[in-house]
Structures are given as structure tokens and as C-alpha cells.
Design goal:
269 residues; Helix Hairpins; three-stranded antiparallel β-sheet
């Protein structure tokens, strides 16, 4: 490698050379502009430097054994459990547990609905009792007021009952109207809740409520039925995939045998 000095660059400029072109297939690598196919002598800064390099792509060579090993990926060392009776039993148990969980959730929702109905019935009884109590209080107040008016008439000459007793007169304030309004609002909410319960009940919840023995029957049959349905849907695809996998492994084994036994002969000219 020959170093191009500053004096030579100035000489080339004087000879009207404008570009410094590297050898065929090479590039300039400069400290200020990086990789470039040519350098302009008019703008070249002599305080920087450039190196002529040949860029070669990275090549990786692998032997045939290494390629086959990478392609196979260690076949034969992977352990897979065959589809035995244990696997089938596990799937059946899993399906039964899933079905039982779904049925249990339906039963749980039915119990919550029954509890809500019982609470609504208790609230209705309390509302009826409070209404009867308010009626009794109002009737008692009417009796007391009637007696008060009678006594005022008897002690009219003395100025009334309070003057005769020389006590402060008591006044009755009726709050039963507020109680009636509260009970009417409670009755309205209970009716709305009852209507929501009747409209929100699904057909299968009504079915389970009418026939409780279906819970036990479906718990026993749901798992196998779901498994059989899944087998009918995905079984052909799984069998096809397994057969294709076996066929590919046989083809690879045949190719390896043919490759190991192949003998090359020169073709006569």
C-alpha cells in the first residue's frame, strides 16, 4: 500500500485532475465522509485521511453433515406421550369437570335467585305490617281527637280542657302520610324487582328449576359428549397431520439412505 502524500495531491490538482478514483472493485473509506466510490480533489481536506479497501460479503461454509444435523434438529431425541388410555381418561375427566363447573354455576345462580325472591317476600310482609300499623295509629289519633273535642265542650264554661287542667295544650302532628309514601315507593320497587326476575330468567334456568334430576344426568354425560363432538370436528385434521408427519419422516430417511449410498460416475464424452 502506498501512502498518497499532500504534495502529490497538490501536484494532481495543478494537472487539472478533479477526482481520485480507487482500483477497480475497491472503495474509499475516509475519516470524515465514510465509504465513497471517489474523492473530489477540489474539496478534499488534507488534515483527514482515506483508505482504499475491498468490501467482501460474509460467506459461511457448512459441511453436509452439519446441514443435515441442523435440518433434522435432533429427531429421535424428542419424547412424546402416545395417545393412551391414560390420556383419554384425563380428557374425559377434564370435560366432566368443565361441564360440572358450568352446571354448578347455573345451580348457584338459581340459589341466588331463590334467596332474592325470599328477601322480596319478607320485604312485602314488612310493608304490609307497617301499613296496618299506620292505619292503627291513625285510628287511635282520631279517637283521641274526638275525645278531646268532647272534653272541650264539657269544659267550655271554664275556657276548655287545658284551662280547666291549668296545663299547656298538646297538639297532634300526623306523620302517617310520610309513612304511606315510603311504603308506596317500597311496593313499587318490589313490583319492579319481581318483574325483572320473571323476565330475566332464561329458558335453561327454568328447565333446571322444573327438573332437578337433569343436573346429575348432564354432569355425567356432558364430558363424553363434548369430547366426542370435538373428536368428530378436529379428528380428521389431526389424523391427516399425523399421517403427513410420518410420510415426511419416511421421505427424509429415504433421502439420507440414498445420499449415503450414492456413487458418482463420470459421464462418457
Amino acid at each position: 500500500n502506498e501512502t498518497i502524500r499532500e504534495t502529490r495531491i497538490k501536484q494532481k490538482k495543478n494537472e487539472t485532475y478533479k477526482w481520485a478514483i480507487p482500483t477497480a472493485g475497491a472503495k474509499w473509506v475516509c475519516s470524515d465522509i465514510g465509504v465513497t466510490p471517489c474523492i473530489s480533489l477540489q474539496v478534499f481536506n488534507v488534515s483527514q485521511f482515506c483508505v482504499q479497501v475491498v468490501i467482501i460479503p460474509r460467506l459461511m461454509y457448512h459441511s453436509m453433515e452439519d446441514v443435515m444435523h441442523r435440518f433434522e434438529g435432533g429427531l429421535g431425541r424428542q419424547k412424546r406421550e402416545p395417545f393412551t388410555a391414560i390420556s383419554l381418561a384425563t380428557l374425559l375427566i377434564a370435560g366432566g369437570v368443565g361441564a360440572g363447573t358450568g352446571i354448578a354455576s347455573i345451580i348457584k345462580s338459581e340459589q341466588m335467585q331463590a334467596l332474592q325472591v325470599a328477601v322480596n317476600e319478607d320485604l312485602m310482609r314488612i310493608e304490609q305490617s307497617i301499613n296496618q300499623l299506620s292505619i292503627s295509629v291513625k285510628s287511635l289519633s282520631e279517637v283521641a281527637l274526638q275525645n278531646r273535642r268532647g272534653l272541650d265542650l264539657l269544659f267550655l264554661k271554664e275556657g276548655g280542657l287545658c284551662v280547666a287542667l291549668q296545663e299547656e295544650c298538646c297538639t297532634f302532628i300526623d306523620y302517617t302520610g310520610i309513612v304511606k309514601d315510603s311504603m308506596a315507593e317500597l311496593r313499587k320497587r318490589l313490583d319492579q324487582r319481581k318483574k325483572d326476575l320473571e323476565t330475566g330468567t332464561t329458558w335453561y334456568e327454568n328447565w333446571f328449576s322444573a327438573k332437578p334430576w337433569l343436573t346429575t344426568l348432564l354432569s355425567a354425560l356432558a364430558g363424553p359428549l363434548i369430547l366426542a363432538l370435538l373428536g368428530l370436528i378436529f379428528g380428521p385434521c389431526i389424523i391427516k397431520y399425523v399421517l403427513r408427519f410420518i410420510q415426511e419422516r419416511f421421505d427424509i430417511a429415504k433421502l439420507m439412505i440414498l445420499t449415503s449410498r450414492a456413487e458418482y460416475q463420470q459421464v462418457p464424452q
